[in-house]
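Here is an idea for our session: we take a single protein and study its fold together. Once you have written the record down, we can walk along the chain together.
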Amino acid sequence: MSQPGAEWRYRVAVASPIPRPAGPDPTPVRAPTADPVAIRACLTPDVAAVFDAEWEYVLEEAKKSKDLAGVRDLLQHWRHHAYREIREPGAYFRVLATAARGQATRKAPAGSVSSEDIRARIDARLAEASLKEAGHR
């Protein structure tokens, strides 16, 4: 039984995107704070289940090690996923599907930037930053 506006390709319902009105969005979306409740509130139930599993694992590790660095890292990491899920519902599983396809085919997705181009961009930005820094002296 299918729900209106849902696709059943991934064993879960994926809602179709709602058309956005032309022009800028009147209410800008903000990333959640690095708080598990705030992050979880931005996630669909399926993505929240992944977050919950990682959260439980990191908490157990923090109990053993008495070090909260892993908890902070997890929250920072998931802030980005939560923000993207708010802006593009279903993005988390699309990213996973793209990565799995790339691993299976050993080919980069269409439109990917080569490692040489990335290195050139990094080098250009570093050079630009060092020139700006030299200008402030």
Notes: Residues 1-18 have pLDDT under 50 and may be disordered. Residues 6-16+28-135 form one domain. The longest helix spans residues 45-65. The beta strands are 6-7, 14-15.
